[in-house]
Amino acid sequence: MFSSFSSISNPFYLPRFLSGSSSSAVAIKPVEVHNVETLHEKRARTLKHLLKLNHVNHSVIYHDLVFHNHTAHILASAYLLRADSGHLNDIYDDESKELEPWRDSPGEISTYDWRDYLGNAKYQRAYLDFFEDQLVLNGYDWQKVLMEYLFKGKEPLINNLISGRG
User: Fold this and answer.
1) From CA 124, how far away is CA 102, in angstroms rounded?
2) What is the pLDDT of residues 117-138, one digit of tens each?
3) Entry pTM
4) Distance between CA 166 and CA 121 in Å, rounded?
5) Over the Cα atoms of the chain, what is R_g?
6) Residues with Cβ < 8 Å from 32, sequence gap 6 or more?
7) SS3 string of 41-110?
8) Which of 36, 29, 128 is nearest to 76 (CA)?
């Protein structure tokens, strides 16, 4: 059944994380970047418009805070699979039927209390606003914001990404 794979001349190996040796690591080539912010083709402009529309109009978690909004992933995948502008619009329209608009959070989040509401999905809009503000304050240097909030502090948020929600 898998005999066609026996002719592969350069098999890959899983990296050995603690061995200190990189000889068995997988070499991954960079992928093409699709910068829809600057591309002028209609498909790219449509994708950019629909991603922004989704971001502005629809909450991340919906239906009693159970389901996640996957519209951005679906649109980006369709774009990479060469969907035309009409198809991208149809996907957005179809996905939007199930989504819910943003709800106001019970309060705002600041640099002093941003950890206090982790895991409380009712604050999803407040977190979006907070991190958008952080991007503005840091000159849209998303890497700086990422380093500050994901990797620094006594309880870095990266732990939540690898151990579960909230």
Assistant:
1) 9
2) 988 888 999 999 999 999 999 9
3) 0.69
4) 9
5) 20
6) none
7) CHHHHHHHHHHHHHHHHECCEECCCCEECCHHHHHHHHHHCCCCHHHHHHHHHHHHCCCCECCCCCCCCC
8) 36
